[in-house]
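Sharing a chain and its predicted structure for anyone who wants a worked example. Both blocks are below, sequence first, C-alpha coordinates second.
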Amino acid sequence: MSGPSIQEIVAAVDKLESESVAMLHEIVSHPSLLNDEKSVQDFMFKKFEELSDATLQVKRVPVHHKVIKQLRGYSPVTEWGYVDEDPEKYAGKFNVVAVRAPNANSGKTLIFNGHVDVVPTGREDMWKVTRPFEPKVVDGRLYGRGAGDMKAGIVAFYMAYKAILSLGYAPASRLEMHTVVEEECTGNGALVVAQEAQGQACIIPEPFDFIVNAQLGVAWFRVTIRGKSVHVLDTSAGSNAIESSINIWNALKVLEEKWNAPETRHKNYAGHKHPINFNFGTIEGGDWPSSVPSFATFQVRVGFFPGVSLESVRKEVEETVANIAKERGIHYELEWNGFQAEGCVLGDEQDPNGLFSSLQRIHKEVLGREVVLSPVTCTTDARHYQLYRDIPTTCFGPEAKNIHGPDESVSLKSLHDCTKVLAAFIADWFKLDRATK
Protein backbone atom coordinates (compact mmCIF):
# COMPACT_ATOMS: atom_id res chain seq x y z
CA MET A 1 0.00 0.00 0.00
CA SER A 2 1.39 3.41 -0.95
CA GLY A 3 0.83 6.26 1.43
CA PRO A 4 -0.16 5.80 5.08
CA SER A 5 0.12 2.50 6.94
CA ILE A 6 -2.82 0.56 8.34
CA GLN A 7 -1.84 1.72 11.80
CA GLU A 8 -1.83 5.37 10.73
CA ILE A 9 -5.23 5.00 9.07
CA VAL A 10 -6.77 3.33 12.14
CA ALA A 11 -5.36 6.09 14.33
CA ALA A 12 -6.83 8.74 12.02
CA VAL A 13 -10.25 7.08 12.18
CA ASP A 14 -9.97 6.82 15.97
CA LYS A 15 -9.50 10.59 16.17
CA LEU A 16 -12.76 11.08 14.26
CA GLU A 17 -14.84 8.73 16.40
CA SER A 18 -16.64 11.41 18.42
CA GLU A 19 -17.22 13.46 15.28
CA SER A 20 -18.69 10.39 13.58
CA VAL A 21 -21.21 9.88 16.36
CA ALA A 22 -22.10 13.58 16.30
CA MET A 23 -22.65 13.47 12.54
CA LEU A 24 -24.81 10.36 12.86
CA HIS A 25 -26.84 12.03 15.60
CA GLU A 26 -27.41 15.04 13.35
CA ILE A 27 -28.29 13.10 10.20
CA VAL A 28 -30.75 10.82 12.03
CA SER A 29 -32.53 13.88 13.47
CA HIS A 30 -33.59 14.86 9.94
CA PRO A 31 -36.99 13.16 9.34
CA SER A 32 -36.19 12.18 5.77
CA LEU A 33 -39.37 10.31 4.99
CA LEU A 34 -40.66 9.98 1.44
CA ASN A 35 -41.09 13.45 -0.13
CA ASP A 36 -39.34 15.11 2.84
CA GLU A 37 -35.72 14.52 1.88
CA LYS A 38 -34.60 18.12 1.27
CA SER A 39 -33.23 19.01 4.70
CA VAL A 40 -31.01 15.94 4.96
CA GLN A 41 -29.73 16.36 1.40
CA ASP A 42 -28.93 20.02 2.09
CA PHE A 43 -27.05 18.81 5.16
CA MET A 44 -25.05 16.30 3.10
CA PHE A 45 -24.28 18.91 0.44
CA LYS A 46 -22.81 21.14 3.14
CA LYS A 47 -20.84 18.28 4.71
CA PHE A 48 -19.23 17.36 1.39
CA GLU A 49 -18.28 20.99 0.82
CA GLU A 50 -16.61 21.05 4.24
CA LEU A 51 -14.12 18.33 3.32
CA SER A 52 -10.55 19.53 2.93
CA ASP A 53 -10.27 18.61 -0.73
CA ALA A 54 -9.98 21.47 -3.23
CA THR A 55 -10.52 19.03 -6.10
CA LEU A 56 -13.89 17.77 -4.82
CA GLN A 57 -16.86 19.07 -6.82
CA VAL A 58 -20.28 18.86 -5.16
CA LYS A 59 -23.59 19.20 -6.98
CA ARG A 60 -27.31 18.54 -6.62
CA VAL A 61 -28.74 16.17 -9.23
CA PRO A 62 -32.54 16.46 -9.51
CA VAL A 63 -34.81 13.56 -10.40
CA HIS A 64 -36.94 14.33 -13.48
CA HIS A 65 -39.84 12.01 -14.09
CA LYS A 66 -39.92 12.46 -17.85
CA VAL A 67 -36.27 11.39 -18.02
CA ILE A 68 -36.35 8.33 -15.76
CA LYS A 69 -39.48 6.92 -17.40
CA GLN A 70 -37.33 6.11 -20.42
CA LEU A 71 -34.65 4.22 -18.50
CA ARG A 72 -34.24 0.54 -17.78
CA GLY A 73 -34.62 0.10 -14.05
CA TYR A 74 -37.36 2.72 -13.68
CA SER A 75 -39.99 1.97 -11.04
CA PRO A 76 -43.42 3.50 -11.80
CA VAL A 77 -44.85 6.15 -9.51
CA THR A 78 -48.46 7.36 -9.42
CA GLU A 79 -48.89 8.69 -5.87
CA TRP A 80 -46.21 11.39 -5.90
CA GLY A 81 -44.07 13.27 -8.39
CA TYR A 82 -40.68 14.80 -9.09
CA VAL A 83 -38.95 18.14 -9.59
CA ASP A 84 -40.02 18.59 -13.21
CA GLU A 85 -43.69 18.09 -12.26
CA ASP A 86 -43.87 20.35 -9.19
CA PRO A 87 -40.57 22.11 -8.30
CA GLU A 88 -41.94 23.47 -5.02
CA LYS A 89 -43.78 20.42 -3.73
CA TYR A 90 -40.97 18.04 -4.68
CA ALA A 91 -38.03 20.32 -3.99
CA GLY A 92 -36.30 17.53 -2.08
CA LYS A 93 -36.24 15.12 -5.00
CA PHE A 94 -32.55 15.49 -5.70
CA ASN A 95 -29.42 13.45 -5.13
CA VAL A 96 -26.10 14.85 -3.94
CA VAL A 97 -22.99 13.85 -5.89
CA ALA A 98 -19.46 14.67 -4.76
CA VAL A 99 -16.72 13.88 -7.29
CA ARG A 100 -12.96 14.04 -6.99
CA ALA A 101 -11.59 13.93 -10.55
CA PRO A 102 -7.86 14.77 -10.64
CA ASN A 103 -6.52 15.90 -13.99
CA ALA A 104 -3.96 13.09 -14.08
CA ASN A 105 -6.55 10.45 -13.05
CA SER A 106 -3.93 7.76 -12.39
CA GLY A 107 -5.19 4.37 -11.22
CA LYS A 108 -8.46 2.66 -10.30
CA THR A 109 -11.73 4.47 -9.63
CA LEU A 110 -14.38 3.98 -6.94
CA ILE A 111 -17.95 4.95 -6.02
CA PHE A 112 -19.60 5.11 -2.62
CA ASN A 113 -23.39 5.24 -2.49
CA GLY A 114 -25.85 5.71 0.34
CA HIS A 115 -29.55 6.49 0.60
CA VAL A 116 -30.91 9.23 2.87
CA ASP A 117 -34.59 8.26 2.76
CA VAL A 118 -36.15 6.24 5.56
CA VAL A 119 -39.29 4.14 5.92
CA PRO A 120 -42.28 5.32 8.01
CA THR A 121 -41.84 5.17 11.76
CA GLY A 122 -44.98 3.21 12.59
CA ARG A 123 -46.78 3.93 15.87
CA GLU A 124 -44.60 6.11 18.04
CA ASP A 125 -45.95 4.47 21.20
CA MET A 126 -44.18 1.28 20.11
CA TRP A 127 -40.80 3.05 20.34
CA LYS A 128 -39.51 2.40 23.86
CA VAL A 129 -35.98 3.83 23.86
CA THR A 130 -36.58 7.18 22.18
CA ARG A 131 -38.80 8.89 19.64
CA PRO A 132 -37.95 8.06 16.00
CA PHE A 133 -36.17 11.30 15.10
CA GLU A 134 -34.69 12.05 18.53
CA PRO A 135 -31.54 9.92 18.35
CA LYS A 136 -30.24 8.52 21.61
CA VAL A 137 -27.20 6.45 22.54
CA VAL A 138 -27.79 3.56 24.93
CA ASP A 139 -25.29 0.77 25.67
CA GLY A 140 -23.12 1.51 22.66
CA ARG A 141 -25.98 1.74 20.16
CA LEU A 142 -27.53 4.80 18.57
CA TYR A 143 -31.32 4.54 18.28
CA GLY A 144 -33.54 6.32 15.76
CA ARG A 145 -35.26 5.81 12.44
CA GLY A 146 -32.66 5.42 9.72
CA ALA A 147 -29.78 5.01 12.17
CA GLY A 148 -28.91 1.64 10.68
CA ASP A 149 -30.73 1.80 7.36
CA MET A 150 -28.62 3.47 6.29
CA LYS A 151 -27.43 6.77 7.68
CA ALA A 152 -24.62 5.13 9.64
CA GLY A 153 -23.31 3.77 6.33
CA ILE A 154 -23.17 7.28 4.88
CA VAL A 155 -21.27 8.47 7.94
CA ALA A 156 -18.87 5.52 7.52
CA PHE A 157 -17.78 6.34 3.97
CA TYR A 158 -17.75 10.08 4.63
CA MET A 159 -15.50 9.71 7.68
CA ALA A 160 -13.36 7.11 5.94
CA TYR A 161 -12.53 9.63 3.25
CA LYS A 162 -12.07 12.40 5.80
CA ALA A 163 -9.57 10.20 7.68
CA ILE A 164 -7.46 9.78 4.53
CA LEU A 165 -7.56 13.52 3.90
CA SER A 166 -6.55 14.21 7.51
CA LEU A 167 -3.33 12.26 6.87
CA GLY A 168 -2.52 14.55 3.96
CA TYR A 169 -3.46 12.13 1.18
CA ALA A 170 -6.15 11.90 -1.49
CA PRO A 171 -6.88 9.52 -4.40
CA ALA A 172 -4.92 10.12 -7.59
CA SER A 173 -7.93 8.96 -9.62
CA ARG A 174 -11.69 9.46 -9.66
CA LEU A 175 -13.71 9.02 -6.46
CA GLU A 176 -17.48 9.56 -6.40
CA MET A 177 -19.76 9.77 -3.36
CA HIS A 178 -23.53 9.64 -3.93
CA THR A 179 -26.33 10.28 -1.43
CA VAL A 180 -29.63 9.39 -3.04
CA VAL A 181 -33.38 9.44 -2.48
CA GLU A 182 -36.07 6.75 -2.80
CA GLU A 183 -34.03 3.62 -2.22
CA GLU A 184 -36.78 2.37 0.06
CA CYS A 185 -39.58 2.45 -2.53
CA THR A 186 -38.34 2.78 -6.13
CA GLY A 187 -34.58 3.21 -6.50
CA ASN A 188 -35.28 6.06 -8.90
CA GLY A 189 -32.76 8.32 -7.17
CA ALA A 190 -29.81 6.00 -7.76
CA LEU A 191 -31.15 5.27 -11.24
CA VAL A 192 -30.43 8.91 -12.13
CA VAL A 193 -26.90 9.22 -10.75
CA ALA A 194 -25.83 5.79 -11.99
CA GLN A 195 -26.31 6.96 -15.59
CA GLU A 196 -23.25 9.22 -15.38
CA ALA A 197 -21.30 7.31 -12.74
CA GLN A 198 -17.71 6.38 -13.52
CA GLY A 199 -16.11 3.73 -11.36
CA GLN A 200 -14.46 0.33 -11.46
CA ALA A 201 -16.20 -0.63 -8.22
CA CYS A 202 -19.01 0.57 -5.98
CA ILE A 203 -19.55 0.05 -2.24
CA ILE A 204 -22.91 0.71 -0.57
CA PRO A 205 -22.63 0.51 3.24
CA GLU A 206 -26.11 -0.91 3.87
CA PRO A 207 -26.55 -2.48 7.33
CA PHE A 208 -24.93 -5.81 6.49
CA ASP A 209 -21.65 -6.57 8.30
CA PHE A 210 -20.74 -9.05 5.56
CA ILE A 211 -20.04 -8.76 1.84
CA VAL A 212 -23.25 -9.11 -0.15
CA ASN A 213 -22.85 -11.30 -3.25
CA ALA A 214 -26.45 -11.39 -4.49
CA GLN A 215 -29.79 -9.70 -3.95
CA LEU A 216 -33.35 -10.59 -4.83
CA GLY A 217 -35.64 -8.80 -7.20
CA VAL A 218 -38.57 -6.99 -5.63
CA ALA A 219 -41.89 -5.88 -7.12
CA TRP A 220 -44.77 -3.98 -5.55
CA PHE A 221 -48.37 -3.99 -6.71
CA ARG A 222 -51.74 -2.70 -5.57
CA VAL A 223 -55.10 -4.51 -5.83
CA THR A 224 -58.36 -2.57 -5.61
CA ILE A 225 -61.56 -4.58 -5.07
CA ARG A 226 -65.12 -3.48 -5.59
CA GLY A 227 -67.72 -5.48 -3.64
CA LYS A 228 -71.38 -4.86 -2.83
CA SER A 229 -72.42 -3.17 0.39
CA VAL A 230 -75.50 -4.38 2.25
CA HIS A 231 -76.74 -4.46 5.85
CA VAL A 232 -75.24 -7.30 7.86
CA LEU A 233 -78.73 -8.73 8.48
CA ASP A 234 -78.29 -10.39 5.07
CA THR A 235 -74.57 -10.65 4.33
CA SER A 236 -75.16 -13.24 1.63
CA ALA A 237 -76.72 -10.54 -0.53
CA GLY A 238 -73.52 -8.54 -0.49
CA SER A 239 -69.95 -9.04 -1.61
CA ASN A 240 -67.31 -8.51 1.08
CA ALA A 241 -64.30 -6.76 -0.46
CA ILE A 242 -62.08 -7.40 2.56
CA GLU A 243 -62.83 -11.12 2.51
CA SER A 244 -62.05 -11.07 -1.22
CA SER A 245 -58.69 -9.50 -0.40
CA ILE A 246 -57.95 -12.41 1.93
CA ASN A 247 -58.92 -14.92 -0.74
CA ILE A 248 -56.51 -13.32 -3.20
CA TRP A 249 -53.77 -13.22 -0.57
CA ASN A 250 -54.19 -16.91 0.20
CA ALA A 251 -53.76 -17.70 -3.50
CA LEU A 252 -50.63 -15.57 -3.63
CA LYS A 253 -49.17 -17.47 -0.65
CA VAL A 254 -49.43 -20.67 -2.70
CA LEU A 255 -47.43 -18.95 -5.45
CA GLU A 256 -44.85 -17.89 -2.84
CA GLU A 257 -44.23 -21.49 -1.86
CA LYS A 258 -43.97 -22.49 -5.52
CA TRP A 259 -41.22 -19.92 -6.04
CA ASN A 260 -39.39 -21.20 -2.94
CA ALA A 261 -39.27 -24.80 -4.20
CA PRO A 262 -35.68 -26.15 -4.16
CA GLU A 263 -35.71 -26.92 -7.89
CA THR A 264 -36.47 -23.28 -8.75
CA ARG A 265 -33.79 -21.68 -6.58
CA HIS A 266 -30.87 -19.60 -7.72
CA LYS A 267 -27.59 -21.23 -6.67
CA ASN A 268 -26.67 -18.37 -4.31
CA TYR A 269 -29.81 -19.09 -2.28
CA ALA A 270 -29.64 -22.89 -2.30
CA GLY A 271 -28.97 -23.12 1.44
CA HIS A 272 -31.43 -20.45 2.54
CA LYS A 273 -34.46 -21.66 4.51
CA HIS A 274 -37.07 -19.42 2.86
CA PRO A 275 -35.54 -16.79 0.56
CA ILE A 276 -38.65 -15.68 -1.34
CA ASN A 277 -41.07 -13.70 0.78
CA PHE A 278 -44.37 -12.09 -0.15
CA ASN A 279 -45.59 -9.36 2.19
CA PHE A 280 -49.18 -8.17 2.65
CA GLY A 281 -48.03 -4.65 3.46
CA THR A 282 -51.08 -2.37 3.66
CA ILE A 283 -54.87 -2.66 3.50
CA GLU A 284 -57.73 -0.17 3.55
CA GLY A 285 -61.39 -1.08 3.29
CA GLY A 286 -64.91 -0.74 4.57
CA ASP A 287 -66.55 2.19 6.29
CA TRP A 288 -68.89 0.76 8.93
CA PRO A 289 -68.84 -2.31 11.23
CA SER A 290 -72.43 -3.21 10.38
CA SER A 291 -72.10 -2.82 6.61
CA VAL A 292 -70.59 -5.41 4.31
CA PRO A 293 -67.49 -3.60 2.96
CA SER A 294 -67.90 -2.66 -0.70
CA PHE A 295 -64.29 -1.64 -1.29
CA ALA A 296 -60.78 -2.63 -0.28
CA THR A 297 -57.31 -1.77 -1.45
CA PHE A 298 -54.19 -3.67 -0.46
CA GLN A 299 -50.52 -3.58 -1.43
CA VAL A 300 -48.14 -6.50 -1.73
CA ARG A 301 -44.40 -6.89 -2.05
CA VAL A 302 -43.06 -9.99 -3.80
CA GLY A 303 -39.46 -11.19 -4.01
CA PHE A 304 -37.92 -13.23 -6.82
CA PHE A 305 -34.54 -14.68 -7.74
CA PRO A 306 -31.76 -13.14 -9.84
CA GLY A 307 -32.19 -14.05 -13.48
CA VAL A 308 -35.99 -14.14 -13.28
CA SER A 309 -37.50 -11.46 -15.50
CA LEU A 310 -39.96 -8.86 -14.29
CA GLU A 311 -42.21 -9.84 -17.18
CA SER A 312 -42.49 -13.43 -15.96
CA VAL A 313 -43.07 -12.27 -12.37
CA ARG A 314 -45.90 -9.99 -13.43
CA LYS A 315 -47.41 -12.69 -15.62
CA GLU A 316 -47.53 -15.29 -12.83
CA VAL A 317 -48.87 -12.82 -10.27
CA GLU A 318 -51.54 -11.53 -12.64
CA GLU A 319 -52.59 -15.07 -13.60
CA THR A 320 -52.81 -16.10 -9.95
CA VAL A 321 -55.02 -13.14 -9.07
CA ALA A 322 -57.15 -13.55 -12.19
CA ASN A 323 -57.75 -17.25 -11.50
CA ILE A 324 -58.94 -16.80 -7.92
CA ALA A 325 -60.98 -13.76 -8.92
CA LYS A 326 -62.77 -15.76 -11.61
CA GLU A 327 -63.40 -18.63 -9.21
CA ARG A 328 -64.81 -16.35 -6.47
CA GLY A 329 -66.48 -13.74 -8.65
CA ILE A 330 -64.22 -10.92 -7.46
CA HIS A 331 -64.15 -7.61 -9.31
CA TYR A 332 -60.70 -6.07 -9.04
CA GLU A 333 -58.01 -3.89 -10.61
CA LEU A 334 -54.28 -4.64 -10.30
CA GLU A 335 -51.64 -1.93 -10.70
CA TRP A 336 -47.85 -2.25 -10.55
CA ASN A 337 -46.59 0.74 -8.56
CA GLY A 338 -43.31 1.33 -6.74
CA PHE A 339 -40.46 -1.18 -6.82
CA GLN A 340 -39.95 -2.98 -10.11
CA ALA A 341 -36.44 -4.09 -9.21
CA GLU A 342 -34.58 -6.91 -10.91
CA GLY A 343 -32.48 -9.28 -8.84
CA CYS A 344 -28.78 -9.67 -9.51
CA VAL A 345 -25.54 -11.37 -8.58
CA LEU A 346 -23.14 -8.78 -7.19
CA GLY A 347 -19.44 -8.09 -7.27
CA ASP A 348 -16.60 -9.89 -9.03
CA GLU A 349 -15.89 -13.10 -7.12
CA GLN A 350 -13.69 -14.46 -9.91
CA ASP A 351 -11.32 -11.47 -10.01
CA PRO A 352 -8.33 -12.06 -7.68
CA ASN A 353 -7.56 -8.34 -7.65
CA GLY A 354 -11.13 -7.09 -7.72
CA LEU A 355 -13.58 -5.58 -5.29
CA PHE A 356 -14.44 -8.71 -3.29
CA SER A 357 -10.92 -10.03 -2.84
CA SER A 358 -9.56 -6.59 -1.96
CA LEU A 359 -12.32 -5.89 0.56
CA GLN A 360 -11.89 -9.33 2.16
CA ARG A 361 -8.15 -8.87 2.46
CA ILE A 362 -8.41 -5.37 3.93
CA HIS A 363 -11.09 -6.47 6.40
CA LYS A 364 -8.76 -9.20 7.69
CA GLU A 365 -5.79 -6.82 7.92
CA VAL A 366 -7.73 -4.14 9.78
CA LEU A 367 -10.01 -6.14 12.08
CA GLY A 368 -8.08 -9.41 12.33
CA ARG A 369 -11.00 -11.61 11.26
CA GLU A 370 -12.48 -13.00 8.08
CA VAL A 371 -15.61 -11.54 6.52
CA VAL A 372 -18.10 -13.82 4.82
CA LEU A 373 -19.84 -13.50 1.47
CA SER A 374 -23.60 -13.92 1.63
CA PRO A 375 -26.75 -13.10 -0.36
CA VAL A 376 -29.60 -10.96 0.98
CA THR A 377 -33.33 -11.52 0.57
CA CYS A 378 -34.12 -7.90 -0.26
CA THR A 379 -33.12 -5.37 -2.89
CA THR A 380 -30.72 -2.41 -2.74
CA ASP A 381 -29.55 0.29 -5.11
CA ALA A 382 -26.63 -1.95 -6.05
CA ARG A 383 -28.59 -3.18 -9.08
CA HIS A 384 -28.33 0.21 -10.79
CA TYR A 385 -24.53 0.02 -10.85
CA GLN A 386 -24.06 -3.74 -11.28
CA LEU A 387 -26.82 -4.60 -13.75
CA TYR A 388 -27.15 -1.45 -15.80
CA ARG A 389 -23.60 -0.05 -15.74
CA ASP A 390 -21.58 -3.27 -15.33
CA ILE A 391 -19.76 -1.82 -12.31
CA PRO A 392 -18.87 -4.49 -9.71
CA THR A 393 -20.85 -3.54 -6.61
CA THR A 394 -21.45 -4.82 -3.11
CA CYS A 395 -23.02 -3.82 0.18
CA PHE A 396 -20.93 -3.85 3.34
CA GLY A 397 -21.74 -1.72 6.36
CA PRO A 398 -22.33 -1.42 10.10
CA GLU A 399 -24.41 -3.91 12.06
CA ALA A 400 -27.96 -2.76 12.81
CA LYS A 401 -31.07 -4.08 14.55
CA ASN A 402 -34.79 -3.54 14.04
CA ILE A 403 -34.46 -1.81 10.68
CA HIS A 404 -37.96 -0.89 9.43
CA GLY A 405 -39.27 -1.50 12.96
CA PRO A 406 -39.56 0.33 16.30
CA ASP A 407 -36.32 1.05 18.17
CA GLU A 408 -34.10 0.76 15.11
CA SER A 409 -30.47 1.00 16.19
CA VAL A 410 -26.90 0.70 14.97
CA SER A 411 -23.82 -0.50 16.80
CA LEU A 412 -21.38 2.38 17.23
CA LYS A 413 -18.47 -0.06 17.49
CA SER A 414 -19.53 -1.63 14.22
CA LEU A 415 -19.78 1.84 12.66
CA HIS A 416 -16.25 2.56 13.84
CA ASP A 417 -14.94 -0.78 12.55
CA CYS A 418 -16.65 -0.27 9.19
CA THR A 419 -15.12 3.20 8.88
CA LYS A 420 -11.65 1.75 9.50
CA VAL A 421 -12.15 -0.90 6.83
CA LEU A 422 -13.44 1.60 4.26
CA ALA A 423 -10.62 4.05 4.97
CA ALA A 424 -8.02 1.33 4.57
CA PHE A 425 -9.79 0.14 1.42
CA ILE A 426 -9.52 3.64 -0.08
CA ALA A 427 -5.79 3.70 0.63
CA ASP A 428 -5.35 0.23 -0.85
CA TRP A 429 -7.58 0.63 -3.91
CA PHE A 430 -6.20 3.96 -5.05
CA LYS A 431 -2.82 5.31 -5.84
CA LEU A 432 -2.62 8.19 -3.37
CA ASP A 433 -1.34 11.72 -3.92
CA ARG A 434 -0.69 14.45 -1.42
CA ALA A 435 -4.01 16.22 -0.78
CA THR A 436 -4.60 19.82 -1.86
CA LYS A 437 -6.68 21.74 0.66
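Comments welcome. The mean pLDDT is 95.
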